Amino acid sequence: MANPRLTCAVALTLLSTSGCATLLAGTSSDVKVMVSDPPGPATIEVRALDGQHRQQVVADFTTLKLPKQHDYVLVIHRDGYASHNQTLCRQISPWFWLNAWAAVPFVFGLSGLAGPSNWGPLTIGAWGLAAGAVTALVDVASGGMWTLATDQVVVNLHPAR
User: Fold this and answer.
1) What is the pTM of this model?
2) Which structural domain, as residue segments, surrounds residue 106?
3) Is 137 exposed, middle or buried (0-12, 13-18, 19+ CB in 10 A)?
4) Cα 17 to Cα 34: distance, rounded to the nearest angstrom
């Protein structure tokens, strides 16, 4: 018969290395960009503020797949029109906060699912804390802890002066 402590430890380790926010929300965001007025294609430049990511598209409507670990500036321009700059900022994903709250019962030894009651709250709490820390590290390293504040940008270009 398998050792219940070992079984529980392996299960918690496997679950903790997955990165909840990374699995549930992914590491990139789809951002829809539309140039609505005047209609027609424009050049859409995407620049990460840290210089790690650059992309350029010519379209009047496109969906950009952007890694979540950066803040971005979109520069939209067309001949004869003033450029439009749009900042896309990242924020911490609600899924990342869920990881922290999910570990609370384990940290305080309140979960009967963590193992036999004779293990004691300290052992269960230590595993819960370790699982939460590893999961958080996976989300931080992969960029899964972030989400972009907006998923849609609509731009009206104005004639250049």
Assistant:
1) 0.72
2) 4-156
3) middle
4) 38
54-68 burial code (b ≥16 CB/10 A, e <16): eeeeeebeeebebbb
CA distances from 115 to 50, 102, 106, 107 (A): 45, 16, 10, 13
Overall domain count for the chain: 1
Contacts of 113 (CB under 8 A, 6+ apart): none
Q: How far is residue 134's CA from residue 124's CA, in Å, rounded to a whole number?
A: 15
Quick check: helix, strand or coil at residue 81?
A: strand
83-113 pLDDT, tens per residue? 999 999 999 988 888 776 666 655 555 544 4
For residue 161, tell me if it sits in a domain. Answer: no
